[in-house]
Design a protein that fits this description.
heterodimer; A: about 280 residues; alpha/beta; Rossmann fold; 2 domains; two-stranded antiparallel ribbon; 8 helices; globular; B: about 300 residues; nine-stranded mixed β-sheet
């Protein structure tokens, strides 16, 4: 296999017993990107390394998002004061083992990482007004014990269904376990009609856990304001469009919508919130 | 990372038989059936992480208990002077949704399989796959054989129901074998190990059919068991074939009449020699394939 080392280190970080928070850029509700951007900004993270994309992403052209050409990125930021490493990355499309091993190489060799936190969003068929419950999957039983004092559902049972494959988060947790790095994958449900947009409540759910667990002492007043703004917008949508209100009412009553109704709700919410932007 | 052997059997004059999934799973069913019939014993594997994305995760009470990868296992069976090593790959290490492996990963895996073959001094390697052919599903599939050395041709000519590429009309001895079932031959040649690929024929209109084609696996196994001078009871393959043929017939009756009429003409295909005129002209062959492709495309669009 190709022996070229795909990691570029710009500056050795000053970390001695750090935690790594990793998220993928293309999550539902843009959760991973928003959470890692927020942490990097608030904690003044300094970019210190990246994984070169050539081996891991199709290089047949560029993707365009919000009118801007994108190039796959896998970047690491150090927050030395908090013994925190943040990795924000596009999901690789090939050579997953080599990619994830590279992530763990950076974590182990350059940051002396002792714990791993992976962020994941899952699309939920519930209303945005339903209180969020984070799910945690750990790679070592002792990690489950450590997390017992936090507001996380730690008893999930799951196995891959026919036709599906495990998530990259599971693959990463597994490889971390092989290196004896305790890790947890934190999953937050995103209402399906916000999956293509942003979900400030979900962001706060993850960030609050990390804040408490890693002792980051972040003040979330700006995020609270964003949650209020989004809730007000959604409330406005409900008051202006009885059909939106009806659909959300039914979701709040734990009733399922038909596939067509789901599609219609997504379309109407996206149109409404898109106008607001 | 590479090969993990849990034991090192003492083998006499061994050969290696390898297969990965492919069209109709013809090769892998043949090889796995033989492995099962001979009750070959597992003795090693190729470590999967660098080749495959995991296939299954098990989370119990919030703890990631198990992550399973497609397996690539070695088995052995000692048989009176012709010991056999089996290699069975559950998946080809393909990327981007492709069925077949190619490039660095494919070469690396082929190399690891041959490392084991050489370690145990295998004198020959067999692989097996599918040959897409203009035949009808009621016909007995032939076996197309491709060696990696000219010195094997005379031996192959003695096999029953077997043809070389040069015996197949219009091919002039040329062709290609996609994926690892073919690549292994090339890598073996580079290392000076003789190898033969045995490909069971599958009707052209069934190459995209989501079922195995055990009738062709049986043809392959007949040749393989002749070549290895071992007797194998193939009843289980016959039973499997009956079930599959029933499904194929159900499908066949749904094919529009005009296309079925074209396909029915394949029943009359005799295995013509290159110099002899066949019952279906080259132009007709082309039309049949085009019609079938159109039909499948239309079905696909219709959901």
């Amino acid at each position: 296999m190709n022996q070229r080392y795909p990691i570029t280190i710009y500056q050795e970080p000053d970390l001695h017993q750090s935690s790594l928070v990793l998220a993928w850029s293309e999550d539902a509700g843009d959760l991973g990107r928003k959470v890692t951007d927020y942490l990097t900004l608030k904690l003044k993270g300094q970019e210190f390394a990246e994984i070169e994309p050539d081996d891991f992403f199709p290089m047949g052209g560029v993707a365009i998002k919000d009118n801007i050409a994108r190039f796959p990125e896998s970047k690491f930021y150090a927050c030395s004061e908090h013994e925190l490493v943040i990795c924000q990355s596009d999901s690789p499309g090939a050579e997953w083992y080599k990619f994830l091993s590279s992530v763990l190489d950076v974590a182990e060799r350059h940051c002396l990482v002792k714990e791993l936190y992976v962020i994941g969003a899952m699309v939920s068929f519930s209303a945005h007004t339903t209180p969020r419950q984070s799910l945690a999957v750990v790679n070592l039983p002792e990690m489950k014990e450590i997390l017992s004092q936090y507001d996380l559902n730690r008893d999930m049972d799951y196995q891959t269904q026919p036709g599906e494959r495990p998530t990259l988060n599971s693959f990463l947790l597994w490889l971390a376990r092989e290196r004896n790095i305790p890790g947890v994958s934190v999953w937050v449900p995103i209402p399906f009609y916000l999956a293509a947009m942003e979900d400030a409540q979900a962001q706060k759910k993850v960030l609050s856990f990390l804040n408490e667990r890693l002792g980051l002492r972040i003040d979330f007043c700006d995020l609270d304001q964003e949650i209020r703004r989004q809730n007000e917008q959604l409330a406005l949508a409900r008051s202006r469009f009885p059909q939106i209100d009806d659909y959300i009412n039914r979701l709040e009553s734990n009733l399922m919508l038909s596939q067509e109704e789901n599609g219609e709700l997504i379309k109407k919410i996206e149109e409404f919130l898109g106008e607001g932007d | 990372m590479g090969i993990r052997l849990c034991q090192e059997p003492q083998l006499e004059n061994p050969i290696l038989i390898a297969s990965w999934p492919g069209i109709g799973n013809i090769g892998i069913i043949a090889v796995d059936t033989l492995r099962g019939k001979l009750e070959a014993e597992e003795f090693g594997e190729i470590e999967p992480q660098e080749f495959f994305y995991p296939k299954r995760v098990l989370i119990r009470k919030g703890v990631l208990e198990c992550l399973e990868f497609p397996s690539s296992k070695f088995y052995f069976k000692k048989i009176r002077g012709t010991d056999i090593i089996f290699f069975i790959g559950e998946e080809q290490p393909a990327e981007g949704g492709r069925m077949y492996a190619e490039g660095r990963k494919a070469c690396r895996m082929a190399g690891l399989v041959l490392d084991v073959a050489e370690k145990f001094k295998c004198r020959r390697v067999y692989t097996s796959g599918a040959a897409v052919a203009l035949i009808h599903h009621t016909a007995k599939p032939r076996v197309w054989a491709v060696p990696n050395s000219g010195s094997l041709i005379s031996e192959i000519k003695a096999y029953q129901n077997t043809v070389l590429m040069s015996d197949i009309e219009g091919r002039g001895g040329h062709g290609n074998i996609t994926g690892l079932n073919g690549l292994l031959l090339g890598v073996a040649k580079k290392r000076g190990v003789e190898a033969i690929c045995l490909m069971g024929e599958i009707p052209v209109y069934l190459q995209g059919f989501p079922l195995s084609y055990p009738k062709a696996s049986k043809s392959v196994l007949e040749v393989l068991s002749y070549s290895l001078k071992i007797e194998v009871n193939l009843d289980t393959l016959d039973e499997l074939d009956q079930k599959v043929q029933q499904r194929i017939e159900e499908f066949y009756q749904q094919v529009p009449l005009e296309i079925r009429a074209q396909l029915d003409r394949l029943k009359r295909v005799a295995y013509a020699q290159p110099a002899e005129p066949g019952p279906i002209t080259e132009e007709e062959e082309k039309r049949i394939v085009e019609d079938v492709e159109k039909f499948f495309k239309k079905r696909g669009e219709g959901g």
